[in-house]
Write a structure and sequence with these properties.
223 residues; alpha+beta; NADH Oxidase; 4-stranded antiparallel beta sheet; 8 helices; 4 strands; binds flavin mononucleotide
């Protein structure tokens, strides 16, 4: 698969087969992704890779934490600003609507929506979970480099035939998860990633999200 194909055909996978992935396979993906660029080559990323009981324990931790506090933990790094402009609210709602439609979940079906959120915390059934961390000393420039690294991980995984889904939902339990994983105080968990073999029989994996045309987000000059 060439780079352009990889970029254009990667999608977020939200239903996985339970086919296991070995540590060596994950290491191979990370070993390639580490060539991702970063500002001044700081390579500000860290990963915590979980499988088996460790992966299940992260899911249990999240569900137990949210049982006590369904709104999620107070978060130092909110996923969205309070005043998210309408354009972005529309895009966010658009992907949610398209996804629920594909799965046949009605807007009012709270139970089905809740089950879907639980599945998010279950890494959509993926056998491997990766949490991305960054030293809290870093500001937004280094967080951008972490994002590039995450995209590289997803592209490498996709090129090798795996599916991925980045998961910001873990921000809801960022603090408990930090303690659970016994991370150093200096580190912050940014997001999770589900990694596994896509279940191609599931409709949700056929979701192709829309993108704005280049003319909508670019200015050109001097050509
Ligand atoms: C940082 C980040 C966090 C995300 N968190 C979640 C998540 O918690 N759950 C989920 O189902 N999808 C999550 N996504 C997937 C996005 O919804 C998805 O990338 C977007 O709708 C575009 O679709 P595509 O990845 O299929 O191209 C996340 C994506 C990114 C980049």
């Amino acid at each position: 698969m060439d780079t352009i194909d990889a970029i254009k055909t990667r999608i977020s996978t939200r239903a996985f087969l339970d086919t296991p992935i070995s540590q060596a396979e994950v290491e191979e993906i990370l070993d390639i992704a580490r060539f991702s660029p970063s500002s001044s080559n700081l390579q500000p990323w860290g990963t915590v890779v979980l499988a088996g009981d460790s992966r299940k324990a992260a899911t249990d931790l999240a569900l137990n934490t949210l049982m006590k506090n369904p709104a999620g933990e107070a978060d130092e790094f909110p996923v969205y600003p309070d005043n998210l402009p309408q354009k972005y609210q529309d895009r966010r709602a658009g992907v949610g609507k398209a996804m629920y439609e594909l799965m046949g979940i009605e807007r009012q079906d709270e139970a089905a929506r809740q089950a879907w959120a639980v599945d998010n915390f279950n890494f959509y059934g993926a056998p491997v979970a990766i949490f991305f961390t960054i030293d809290r000393v870093h500001g937004r420039n280094q967080w951008a480099s972490l994002g590039m690294f995450m995209q590289t991980v997803c592209l490498v995984a996709h090129a090798k035939g795996y599916g991925t889904c980045m998961q910001e939902i873990w921000a809801m339990v960022r603090n408990s998860l930090h303690s659970h994983l016994q991370l150093d105080d200096k580190d912050v968990i940014y997001a999770g990633l589900a990694l596994g073999h896509p279940d191609k029989s599931k409709a949700v994996n056929s979701l192709r999200t829309e993108r704005e045309a280049v003319s909508g987000f670019s200015q050109f000059s001097g050509f």
